[in-house]
Amino acid sequence: MNDPIGTAAHAPHPPGCPAHEEAVRLSGPAFQQGPSELYRSLRGRYGSVAPVLLEGDVPVWLVLGYTEVTYVTAHDELFARDSRRWNQWGAVPADWPLLPFVGHQPSVLFTEGTEHQRRAGVVTEALEAVDQFELAHRCREIAESLINAFAGSGQAELTTAYAHALPMRAAVRMCGMPAHGADTEGLVRDLRISLGAAENDDPVAAYVRVQERIQRLVEGKRRAPGPDVTSRMLAHPAALTDEEAVQDLIVVMAAAQQPTANWICNTLRLLLTDDRFALNVSGGRLSVGQALNEVLWLDTPTQNVIGRWAVRDTTLGGRRIRAGDCLVLGLAAANTDPRIWPEGRVGAENSAHLSFGNGEHRCPYPAPMLADVIARTAVETLLERLPDVVLAVEPDELTWRPSVWMRGLSSLPVSFTPVVALGEYRNGNQR
Q1: pLDDT at residue 282 above 90?
Q2: Residues 198-211: pLDDT tens digits?
Q3: Contact 55, 98 (CB under 8 A)
Q4: In this predicted structure, what is the pLDDT of residue 345?
Q5: What are the backbone dihedrals phi and psi of residue 122, each rounded to the nearest 5 degrees, phi first?
Q6: CA-to-CA distance for 112 and 102, rounded, in angstroms?
Q7: What is the rounded distance in angstroms from the CA atom of residue 271 to the CA atom of residue 383?
Q8: What percentage of the chain carries pLDDT values higher than 90?
Q9: In this structure, are residues 227 and 200 in contact, taking their beta carbons and an 8 Å threshold?
Q10: What is the CATH number of domain 4-426?
């Protein structure tokens, strides 16, 4: 009998583990291809809060319930962001792949109270100044350019050639980096490695390179500011130091690029594989909007977030949480919690999902709107340019990237009737 928990591997909890039962490794083929099955099994066995092990058998709690995730994120006085509280630092190896995202840094992600309000305010105001109409126009231009590169071939691999490339170019241009160049391409490559490393990648080294590149950007904008997010952050009355600006820009770029890319790709997958959308995707704005929202419920680009750390001993979902315990927020599991969808059907008609977080540490208010502009423009432009696009493989041949944190396809191969590059068509040079 297939047991998703069994295939994910049980492991006896190490000394000091917060779990009272055998914890479950949050990894493996079963998780990569069908995390919803693992979440369902964990929920059935442990309830809304489950003991799990991260890479290296580091113990944490995975919060699976919608109500519980909402509670944790709304009560910073109980579950705070400063990772220096963690009671497991003695068990974490120096080369642990998650160190770049768990080790305390002078980043807005780890700040609390008035300091968090100061730093988050800088990011929020810098993003609020982004003109959404200008962003949509720029994304349309980027999309047309990317599509032109493969439009005449009749086939493409959309994950790399389109879904990841478009938000990358949009994000770096918003932050004042050139659309092309070695620094830009290297930054995007290293962000991808640090967020979801493949077998031979070094996420810690990649993150160091990300910091170095952003440091050069900040130094350049100090000397010559422009109409961009970086310059606005540096000019803010809160007077960020260079180190603070570098760390917060990494947060902005990482959030704008990888999750938005996965949102685009996962939405295209839904549109190309679900019969409910088959008759309407060609130029169908309403169906695209429904697909974008449904993906945030069912295949949310950021499926797990590490994390929160308990300020004191407390209980959550019937579990005893000790001071210093780490909680991973299971956004994907919470979005599909059967307690909020009692009939077993997840609907896309509302936006109460947790894909952008919740509480004081959720994505700054303008960020979800900007991500929607990028993703919607990307999907609609592709469908308008290539109205007969179809999958080039069977749906069950698609595979997911091996990441506990991000939910995105390894590749999305498609085929379509070849078309001329748009510039050639507009110039009357049809072939």
Answers
A1: no
A2: 556 787 788 889 89
A3: yes
A4: 66
A5: -65, -50
A6: 15
A7: 10
A8: 64
A9: no
A10: 1.10.630.10
